[in-house]
Amino acid sequence: MLLGVDYYPEQWDPAWMEADMDTIRELGGNTIRIAEFAWHWMEPEEGRYDFSFFDRVIAKAKERGLQVILGTPTAAVPAWLAKKCPDILSQFENGQPRAFGGRHVCCYNSPALYGYSEKIIRAMVRHYKDEPQIAAWQIDNEIGHEGSDLCWCPHCREAFQRFLQGKFGGDIHRLNHVYGTAFWSQEYNDFDEIPLPAPTITTHNPALRLDWERFRSQTLCGFLDFQARLIRELAPEAVIIHDFPGGGLDKSVDYAQAAQCLDVAAYNHYPVWGGQKEPLPPHETAFALDHIRGLKRRNFWITEAIMGAQGHDVTGYLPRPNQAKLWSWQGMAHGCEALLYFRYRGALKGAEQFCYGILDADNRKGRKFYEVQSFFREVSPCAQALEAPIHSKAAIVYDYDSLASFRIQRQSLLLDCPGEMKKLYKAFYDVNVPVDVIPSEAGLEGYQIVLLPQLTITKPEFLSKAERFIREGGTLVLTYRAGVKDPDNNLFFGETLPVGWSALAGVTVAETESLQEVNAFPITGEGAFAGADGYGGVFRDMLEVRDAEVLYRYGDPFYREFAAVTRRRQGPGTVYYLGCSLDEGTTARLMETILAECGVETTPSPEGVEIVTRGGTGQKIRLLMNHNAFAAEALGVKLPPYGCVVQTL
User: Fold this and answer.
1) DSSP assignments along 453-511, one per residue
2) Percent helix, strand, coil in the chain (nearest 5)?
3) Reported pTM
4) Cα dihedral angle (36, 40, 42, 44), rounded to 10 degrees?
5) Over the stretch 212-240, which tens digit does the pLDDT of each residue have?
6) Are 206 and 95 in contact (CB under 8 A)?
7) What is the H or E stretch that residue 240 is in?
8) Burial of 20 by CB count in 10 Å (0-12 exposed, 13-18 middle, 19+ buried)?
9) How far apart are alpha carbons 26 and 32 in whole angstroms?
10) Distance CA 510, CA 172 (A)
11) Which of 96, 131, 116 is nearest to 49 (CA)?
């Protein structure tokens, strides 16, 4: 199990290096992560490579038995490169170039970025390919972070036009037909007339904008794949990782596609950031971890775990004593099998002065140091259980194109697709049932319950998987706005919503509306749910029942004839349809019913207490995690505030 710190020796007096390494060993670490932002140190002038500094770093690490995660430095190009090739810089929507000085400031369609990146990566790999101390190569850093998933420069316009030429086989008339460019006289005579969807009056064509989202994702995934192929060409046995930032479901990059070129997906885990009043709720941090585990359907690494307060210009909430340690335990509980803290020592200079580390600028060992030390000491004996795979009986499926469709046309001001996923996820989290968060390309085999929130684009290949899943006895949960669009982000003609799903669900959608309240209208339970009334809002489908059981109806005037929630049993399988965004209590009742029907064991626990079992025949443990600022008790065990108790089973 790799345990350690992110270490930036180039930012410090080299005379401190040996003492730093000794302190990392005292901490209990066995790994350092280096060089991801050190391009200039390795190539101070074009073509003059100098790896002597990091040779010394790795040699000192080897003396102390520290392994190394070595990063390619392409997320922050040197000033000499930006000066020589100014068009390497990406552009804002208004065409203004992004200034050199931040990070991730390059255009991922820039020939110069590819050319110079290839040179530095080849030089690095040739130099270090036989170094046994290198445990893994990290390619780039936090792809798509901080707005770098979008660029509006001439390189991108030309590349986007080539992308569309390829998609439509060079047939501009076919593109015009698919996009419906007769609307607003937008027909194109040639692909070089096609604009980027930069700000305009009203809005751009939704089909064009979805292809733009696909293009942006392909661009970033291609850059990672390019680096992975270079490394494997020269070092076929290399372990290749990438450190994904949070918030991936909102970005114009498909994390699951990006992860295909990796041996291990890694995650930079920040439950709280500068300016936040308080951390994310524990079910949301758990959801984020399960999302990363779902990228490759196997365990992952955390390459940046928080310990101190964080922020660039605005610093934030200081994790309470043992709270950051608890987040580390939660990461391990959800499939992390290697963890490094960001950062060993907080920076004196540069943009991250207020991203506090294990040590602060005073360089003294304090509470945070001993908290990390205790975590490393306690987690190491659990390695066998924590490195075992996780087998979940439930999954939440997300679809990149459907999420992009809602970014393009939100449809309701309150609709937050990742937020709706987390609401459903919480109903499972609260009773300690593990859930995989997986892309729509993944298989559904092995699951008993599959939830499909806001799957607005109907794809025949996924529909076939879902039909097979139901035939084999699975329970499927659809939500409002399912089956609204075709794969080109256009509406269907002559078909009734939810297109492709209507026969499976036993319902059709008569009308729809967007609401500007979360709890905008009452819903009334029927049958087993009689008396268990609730509320709905955000958006709703007026469901006409063909061959399904009504569980809830809309309770407001004019719409009482329409169902709000239905269930259709078909052979061994079942399909639920949630016609609106339900309040948390109603959501929990429905999911509790589904879990009971499927025979999935639940483990009730007090609010804020999470229970996870990991491992198998070799070693099996149970983690009791108290996310509350006060003491709690679960399964007869007393838990201190932000405490974690590990039981051997």
Assistant:
1) TT--B--HHHHHHHHHHHHTT-EEEEETTTT-B-TTS-BPSS-PSSTTTHHHHTEEEEE
2) 35, 20, 40
3) 0.97
4) 170
5) 999 999 999 999 999 999 999 999 999 99
6) no
7) strand 240-244
8) buried
9) 13
10) 36
11) 116
Q: How far apart are CA 321 and CA 308, in angstroms?
A: 10
The phi and psi torsions of 67 (rounded to 5 degrees) equal -80, 165
Cα three-residue angle 176-179-181, rounded to 5 degrees = 60
Q: Return the residue matching tokens 């596609």.
A: 257
The H-or-E segment that residue 207 falls in is helix 206-234
- Bond before 14 cis per omega within 30 degrees: no
3-state SS track over 252-283: CCCHHHHHHHCCEEEEEECCCCCCCCCCCCHH
Distance (Å) of CA 525 to CA 76, 474, 564, 567, 585: 56, 24, 9, 13, 13
Q: 635: which 2 tokens?
A: 């399964």
**Rounded Cα–Cα distance for residues 40 and 46 (Å):** 10
Cα separation values, 375 from 27, 338, 358, 372, Å = 10, 13, 13, 5
Residue 282: how many CB atoms within 10 A of its CB? 22
Give burial (CB, 10 Å; 0-12/13-18/19+) of 199.
Answer: exposed
Q: What is the pLDDT of residues 23-71, one digit of tens each?
A: 999 999 999 999 999 999 999 999 999 999 999 999 999 999 999 999 9
62-63-64 Cα angle (round to 5): 90
**Measuring CA to CA, which residue among 245, 198, 587 is closest to residue 428?**
587
Q: What tokens were used for 317?
A: 């909430």
Is the separation of the CB atoms in 302 and 331 below 8 Å? yes
Q: How many CB atoms lie within 10 A of CB 364?
A: 8
What is d(CA 515, CA 126) in angstroms, rounded to the nearest whole number? Answer: 59
SS3 of 70-131: EECCCCCCCHHHHHHCHHHECECCCCCECCCCCCCCECCCCHHHHHHHHHHHHHHHHHHCCC
